[in-house]
Design a protein that fits this description.
Mean pLDDT: 97
Number of domains: 2
CATH class of the largest domain: Alpha Beta
Low-confidence stretches: none
Order of helices and strands: HHHEHEHEEHEEEEEHEEHHEEEHHHEH
Distance between the termini: 24 Å
Strand order of the largest sheet: 1-9-8-5-4-2-3
Radius of gyration: 21 Å
Shape: globular
Strand content: 15-25%
Structural class: alpha/beta
Length: about 375
């Protein structure tokens, strides 16, 4: 079976370093918010190019907590894309805001910045651009559109190391939020997340918020939550961070290989704009025709492929039970019908990738 994402080869590649890191933590007797978390926060912030990193329990928690710094009150709105994972919507809701969806670009699959201005109202407090599939939104242009009074919280859950004009995703807005779910470009062996920012006051508040609003073991000064990146995950992530650029480079090589060998008249890859460096979290492309039939054919040939995402968030039952607004966003609806995610991970061999492209070419050759 050729899996869409196989995590075992990466574990085997760094097994010795990972076990040394785990043993170091286990032998320390300190497992929550100790030296490994502090070191990883510094190292990751430095990698992204910001002053502060605040490790938390998950990428979703990172987004919720970052949005909590945006002065959101009942009835306030947050603009985002409908073409993203459910946690983006969930975090906006948990932060107390109403999501407002804007259509996407047909080739990059990213938030269509040309349409953001029309979605801004007096209730707009923030925009959450999603750097999707490793591709990156032009945050500098977005800032020109929304102005200085609206927060920009970058959803970087799929974009560890992505860049726009040399600046890394997560360093360009007011806050960046990352997930360390195991399948991410930088993935742990459990849940984890981090918030990045250059705002020292916000960073100090977020460190307290992630641990009940406490300033000591017996005193808290405001409402907070329990959302802490643990020492084991931090130690593992420190190991993998050292190899992230190499893994991302390999992802780019594999993406180029797909582009060269897939039938371009049938499969169109995600477009990456000039000045953007994608880190190709997943290899998603548009099927010009017969997407669902191709999925069945690949499965019969022991090749796993997925659909990211089968329907826009505003068509989910969870959304419809809360909001009655109907959207007419034709681009995202068309992309949802054609998108496919092919097998893709940095340890994937050229031989395996070419066996996938051969089967896809065979499928379309018979149609």
């Amino acid at each position: 079976m050729i899996w869409r994402c196989d995590l075992v080869p990466q574990y085997m590649a760094y097994k010795k370093e990972i076990h040394e890191a785990i043993n170091r933590v286990l032998g320390s007797g300190r497992y929550i918010l100790a030296s490994e978390v502090a070191a990883f926060e510094r190292e990751f912030a430095s990698y992204i190019g910001v002053e502060y990193g605040i490790g938390v329990n998950s990428g979703t928690d990172a987004l919720i907590l970052a949005l909590s710094m945006c002065d959101i009150r009942e009835g306030d709105e947050v603009i985002t894309t409908p073409f993203t994972a459910i946690p983006t919507y969930a975090a906006i809701r948990h932060a107390g805001a109403k999501p407002v969806f804007v259509d996407i670009e047909p080739d990059t699959f990213l938030l269509d910045l040309a349409k953001v201005k029309d979605a801004i109202t007096p209730r707009t407090k923030a925009v959450v651009p999603v750097h999707l599939f490793g591709n990156a939104v032009d945050i500098e242009l977005l800032r020109k559109i929304v102005g200085r009074d609206i927060f920009i919280v970058e959803d970087c859950a799929q974009a560890h190391g992505a860049e726009v004009r040399g600046g890394k995703a997560g360093s360009l807005g007011d806050f960046g939020v990352f997930s360390f779910y195991p399948t991410k470009n930088l993935g742990g062996y459990g849940d984890g997340g981090i918030i990045t920012t250059n705002d020292s006051e916000a960073a100090d508040i977020l460190r307290k918020k992630r641990v009940y609003g406490m300033i000591s073991k017996d005193e808290f000064i405001f409402d907070g939550v329990n959302s802490r990146l643990d020492e084991l995950q931090a130690a593992i992530l420190r190991v993998k961070l050292r190899h992230l650029d190499r893994m991302n480079k390999r992802r780019s090589e594999l993406a180029d290989l797909y582009r060269r060998h897939l039938p371009e008249e049938c499969i169109r890859p995600q477009v990456v704009r000039r000045g953007v460096k994608s880190v190709h979290h997943v290899y998603c492309a548009l099927c010009i025709k017969l997407r669902d039939e191709l999925l069945v054919f690949l499965e019969k040939n022991d090749i796993q492929a997925n659909v990211y995402y089968p329907k826009p968030l505003y068509k989910q039952d969870g959304y419809r039970k809360v909001y009655r607004k109907e959207y007419n966003l034709p681009v995202v609806e068309e992309v949802s019908k054609r998108i496919i995610a092919l097998p893709f991970y940095p340890e994937m061999s050229e031989e395996v990738l070419l066996s996938v492209t051969e089967k896809i070419t065979e499928f379309y050759g018979e149609k």
